[in-house]
Every structure is written in C-alpha cells, then in structure tokens.
Amino acid sequence: MKKMVIWPAYLAAGKTKSEGRLVARKHAVKSPKVEEIESVARTLNLEPEVEKEKAYPKAHWDKSGRVLVTKKGRKGEIVQEIANGIKELREKSKTKSGGK
After folding, report:
1. pLDDT digits (tens, 9 = 90+) for 74-90
2. Against a cut of 0.85, is the pTM above it?
C-alpha cells in the first residue's frame, strides 16, 4: 500500500504556511514530536514508520524526523486528524497529571 510522509512541520503552530505548516493555525499544535505523530497514527490504523534521522527539506539542519503512514485518503485530512489526535493526547496527559 502507498505511504505518505508526515513531517512535524506540517502540524507546528510556530510555523507559517510558507515554512511548511499544512493545517490551519487553530488546528496546529505547539512543537509536535514524531513520537506523538506515531502514537496518533497508530490509533488511526495508519501503520506508522518513524525515521528519526530525517530532516525537513526547508530546515535541513534540524533533524526532527518524519513518520511514514499508509495513504488512506487526502493528505490534508489525515494531517488534520493527526493534529486533533495530538491535542486530545496532550489533554489526556494533562488530566492524568493533575493539570500540570
């Protein structure tokens, strides 16, 4: 099955659209990690594969890693689902730790 690349820059609230963010600012998350993307992609049954040593081409000095996921629909929709999943994941971890 075809794979597509999900870079953390696609979801990053601190990036502009020209720097690589694909989701709207209201759906973006602060400093997304490949581990979070992998976790959410696994819950969405996207069969994630993490490549930690890869660098986003527009920031080739920053080896932030990337996640390959199974292509099951449009890229923009999948990226937004992952962003929403990361927000939910962070909310859950906040409530577990008592809001800290």
Report:
1. 999 999 999 999 999 99
2. yes
